[in-house]
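Justification of resources, computational component.

The compute hours requested in this renewal are based largely on the per-chain cost of generating structure records like the one below. Each record pairs the submitted sequence with a full structure-token output. That output is archived, and it is also reused by downstream analysis tasks.
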Amino acid sequence: MVGQLLIDKTRLTPARILVTFVCAGVLLTLLGVYKPLVEYAGAGATVPITGFGYTLYNGVCKAIEEKGLIGIFTGGLTSVAGGVSAAVLFSFLASLIFKPKMK
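The structure output for this chain reads:
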């Protein structure tokens, strides 16, 4: 709902709105607000785009503890690799099953 309101009422592009939501997930996790929400709602809080920010933040924190400063660059990629790989695979499979049409 918030995303649709931002599209309707502002001049923000959908890409900027998505980046805002990811950053909001990181910020809410940093402030300690998102973790209780995840514990209460489970997948309802981790599946949306704000959950992507939550996962990035946690991956970076874990990698910093394990690898030091280099974890800033590797932690986020490692933590979301499974989800991104699944999205690419399922998108490819959908492209094989369905025939896209140009408009």
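The mean pLDDT is 91. The radius of gyration is 16 Å.
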